[in-house]
Design goal:
Alpha-Beta Plaits; isomerase; tRNA pseudouridine(38-40) synthase activity; single chain; alpha+beta; two-stranded antiparallel sheet; EC 5.4.99.12; RNA binding; globular
């Protein structure tokens, strides 16, 4: 009986899990977009310059360099430790061949970023990952309970019309707690600071900013607790706007960390096929689209 061939990924490239921090106020967006001044845009430029030289767009292997974030934070939202997957040609797959070599590359990228945008972003670490590793599906947190967050989901009519299937608004909230905090950017003793920590495997679009609005509005007696319960029991994406609740600004939000089990780096289970492994003509059609749920 013939054995089923094992998919080993694209042999022409290697992939790395990278961790970065950034000041969201310095960038117009997080993910790659039309403006070309996002977090991913700057990181890709720094890596391309170090690998391919001063004119990376002329290099024949330039298209093999790809970067995709684990969490697409809103414009203006900060990150203390966000994760990205970085794909490089095998000719340059020595980024972490040794501790010294890894630190040399990280230092080189940070120097280039600091020169262009002082204090804007910093590369923290990188680890080589196997072909079947998925930056979104191999996170450490596992499902404990589910909540339908439809009332806190920015899901416009235009987006719904473009979708071939309905997006799920079910998300698992593992931790939601309030603790005493402190100022991060500008020290002062005028205000009382609180950290609101929310841990989950994933969030729907603008979920945290809308949840923060409800917490603040309730603190000012402008939103009854019964209304918040009603929003949770009636998960419809138009409810938030119908109640005229203002969305919280992004400046106070920090993505604190994205956690992965280390064993998934080299031996991911299950293995997932990455969207970049599709045929080139399909990739070009979907270059600016969000990844589907069955992609990584």
């Amino acid at each position: 009986m013939a054995a089923t061939p094992v998919w080993l990924g694209n042999p022409a490239v290697r992939r790395y899990l990278m961790f970065i921090s950034y000041d969201g106020s310095r960038f117009s967006e997080m993910a790659t977009g039309g403006k070309g001044f996002g977090v991913v845009d700057m990181l890709r430029q720094a890596i391309a310059d170090s690998l391919f030289g001063a004119r990376p767009y002329m290099h024949p292997l330039r298209n093999a360099l790809r970067i995709s974030p684990s969490s697409r934070t809103d414009a203006g939202v900060h990150a203390l430790r966000n994760a990205l997957i970085c794909q490089v040609p095998t000719e340059y797959a020595t980024l972490d061949s040794s501790i010294e070599n890894k630190l040399k590359h990280i230092s080189k990228w940070n120097s280039a970023i600091e020169e262009f945008s002082p204090g804007g972003m910093k590369v923290l670490d990188l680890n080589r990952v196997a072909a079947g590793f998925c930056i979104r599906r191999h996170v450490a947190y596992r499902l404990l309970s589910e909540h339908v967050m439809g009332s806190f989901f920015k899901h416009t009519a235009r987006d719904k019309r473009k979708e071939t299937y309905s997006r799920s608004a079910r998300r698992n909230i593992l931790v939601c707690q309030i603790s005493r905090g402190e100022p991060i950017s500008i020290p002062n003793d005028i205000y009382d600071y609180y950290n609101i920590t929310i841990v989950a495997r994933s969030f729907v679009r603008e979920q945290i900013r809308r949840m923060m609005s409800c917490i603040v509005f309730h603190g000012y007696d402008r939103l009854p607790l019964e209304t918040i319960r009603w929003l949770l029991k009636n998960p419809i994406s138009t409810n938030f706007y119908d109640l005229r609740i203002r969305i919280a600004p992004p400046q106070g939000l920090f993505l604190t960390d994205v956690v992965y089990p280390p064993e998934m780096f080299t031996n991911p289970f299950p293995c997932y096929r990455h969207a970049w492994d599709r045929p080139q003509e399909v990739l070009e059609e979907k270059e600016d689209e969000l990844l589907l749920d069955d992609d990584c």
